[in-house]
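Could you please consider the sequence and fold following this short note?
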Amino acid sequence: MREFLDPTDRRLAKLLSSDGQDSVNQLADKLQLSPPTVRTRLRSLIEKNILKIVGLLNLSERPELIAAVVGINANAQGHMDDLIQKIAELPFVTSVSLVTGRFDLIVEVLVAGDVQDLYRFTSELLPRVAGSGVVSRSETFVVIKSHNKWINLPRGCWEPGVMGATDEVAVPLTR
């Protein structure tokens, strides 16, 4: 059974979700704890795979990135966890969720500037990893505009040699 975070770990996670650049000493000051205590708690959260400190991109500021949500109906017959794991390991996948509603799975996908990669994902990679007849239906929703959508780059984005990704990608830095 998963354990709940105590109030101190929740406060630590909240501080880091606001600004992941704070040092252990800064976090200790804000939490009114000793730096070794904060360091131990931070290490424990990371080791338990509860917390991950990463750089995120603001999707609305990156016009070369195309985000999509793919709803999937799957006939995995007792092997849904295996299917979820296989899909999560595909290039361009940022997350896979088992959901209630008209779809069984929701897959978030991010490609860099080429809708062909999205097409290859839905028409080649997904059916290949799922196996024949496992995906009975899928529907892809391309994100036209988003607000407050911070994303991590999945494998395949801005990465040479993955489904047509190029070695050099122009990344405009203007706002």
User: Anything to note?
Assistant: The first helix runs from residue 7 to 18. Residues 7-47 form a domain with the Arc Repressor Mutant, subunit A fold (CATH 1.10.10.10).
